[in-house]
Amino acid sequence: MLRYLEVVEESVVKLKPQEIEIQNIDHLGIVAGIIDSIGIVEIINELIGVEKDEKVNAGQVVKAMIINGLGFVSKPLYMFPEYFETIACEHLIGTGVKPEYLNDDKLGRVMDKLFIKGLDTIFFIIAVKAAQKFGVSLSTSHLDSSSIHVHGQYNTSLPEVIFGSSVCLMQ
Known about the structure:
Blueprint: H1 2-14, H2 28-38, H3 40-48, H4 58-69, H5 80-85, H6 89-93, H7 104-117, H8 119-133, H9 166-170
Helix pairs in contact: 3-4
Domain DUF4277: 21-127
Protein name: DUF4277 domain-containing protein
Pfam families: DUF4277 (PF14104)
């Protein structure tokens, strides 16, 4: 262990200050790891396809959109690359992916392809894959993923409305 620390120390000492780059990932490293463990990038690329010679594929764009959405920011699509300039884009999205590749034109083309393929279908495939990956029981399910229905006895009576000014009520 001591030898390992000596080797690390020697290599750090040899680095020049301009060679060290620190990038922030906050909680997004966990998000990227879960996306990778489910295989969302691969699922999207299989469903949508990969274009020849593209700098960033559809799966990576979807991963970037998820990371951006869970990054607690609300910026328009044309500012998408600016968001990724402040975080470790290549580390989170994929090797060789630069923020400028994630522009509004690329995002728009990918969103069009997702819509054409069918968002419900894509959501279902990813949800089943995630359930399998994390051992979620599928013995019962809810078919409408856009809403949750609950049942029970509710007090539906409305409060009594009294008309008139508050002065009249005080007498």
